[in-house]
Amino acid sequence: MPKLDKPKILVVNDDANSLFALTSLLAQWAEEEPYEVIAARSGEEALRQVLLHDFAVILLDVNMPGMDGFETAEAIHQRGRSANVPIIFITAFVADELDRLKAYQRGAADFLFTPVIPQILHAKISVFVALALKNEELKQQARQLHQRTNDLVSSNRQLLQEIEERKIAERQNHAKDEFLAMLGHELRNPLSAISSAASLIALPGVSMEGAVRAKKIIQRQSQHLGRIVDDLLDLSRAMSGKILLNRVPVDLAALIGNCLETYRATGRTAHYKVSAELEAGWVDGDVTRLEQIFSNLLDNALKYTAPGGTIDVVLEVDGDDTVLTIHDTGVGISTELLPHVFDVFVQGTSTIDRAQGGLGIGLALVRRLTELHGGSVDAESAGPGEGSVFSIRLPRIERIIEKEPEIMDTNEQAKPNVLLIEDNDDGREMMAMMLSCYGYDVRSAPDGLQGIETALSYRPDVALVDIGLPGIDGYEVARRLRANSDTSGIRLIALTGYGLAEDQRRVLEAGFNMHLVKPVDIESLMKAISSLTNPNATPTAAPAS
After folding, report:
1. What's the fold here for domain 8-116?
2. What is the pLDDT of residue 410?
3. What is the rounded distance in angstroms from the CA atom of residue 165 to the CA atom of residue 173?
4. pTM of the model
């Protein structure tokens, strides 16, 4: 325990000799007992000392000029901090009963008469000093107990916070485990279908119709795998803030109408009652990302609505906002889940045989993409079985008068010669075969150095160059081709699995004309080649997806 402060004794007497005698006597005992003596010559000075210090006992002369002992005692006990300080009156006169009563009414603890008997004074002082020491010890223990209590409360609060954080971490880990299990399920399904279809085509007895169906299955499931990879990459980019929007004025009604038409054409809404009320509403946004927002919301409605259910799509203008609302009559959202539907790795209850599939990251992506557009997203549901309502609010802009589209020259032109530089043998062979089937003269190379040699001898119109090549990468291939006057005019298209804005910037700085992200379907690839070789088209860099 920390060392206790010495108790203090105040001696008040207007007679200098009496004051000296008392303080000297007390000072002798102070060498053996832990207390400190303070002297005062008047009641006023005594009050000043009381304001400065706490005292174990006060020895107070009754007969003082000006402010006598009774008045001084009354003033001392009127102050809250010194109200309980014991006062021993010292007087040269024998006090009668009325004087004693008056003294006790003023808070006197005892009387001493002069001449003071030292042994009696010592005994009385020792009692009050011991009492002050004990009170100070109790106060110190109380302070320590209070500090311990505060420490325990703080520790308990920290422990509760750690427990809650651990629960949250466990829930997140559980959600991630479920997500990884679902990812494995979603990847194996299309891979299994592709593997089976490829095996079917190789069978000797397969019919032409069967082979055609198998090819369509491979194409459809490959596109499905591409969408899964795109969702994963988009979520990662969105969470890390690496998505850059290519903003243009967009008629959201036209965009949603086109998306709905695509869904109907592919049969994805065939078993649902889908209605649309679309008021013209213009926003400043990225067309690809806005389509992604709407598609993810519509996919979510289809996923959790049984066939035969109703899905209503409404677009309207509300003040300075364009508001998109999708209402479904599906399974609804529980009260516990509703605040978390836009969190990463959160899904509603799903079954193994669910028809729509998905990774459960679509709504998290919707929220992030909406926020990047300066908007907000909200979900409502009356509970399980009551359907759901998802609303997107985006800042509205004034309607843009669109220019008449230019009529494209559709005259058949000679196909340009193409050089394909790709280190993946299967990918290189398939792409070369597809381009050849569409009339392109194609030559290929498995690495950058052979690609440059082939370019010098073949002099292609267009070179499709993979970025991740062995030896020298695609960036270096582009730089060397541009540095050579014999190959500097070749149109260069980067084919890469890297799709961030930084990757596109590096591609263009290296000398490429265009940046395409794998996998690239044949129609998109031919459009890209045409845009670079058609004299009526202006070559531009394709946006990274």
Report:
1. Rossmann fold (3.40.50)
2. 41
3. 12
4. 0.48
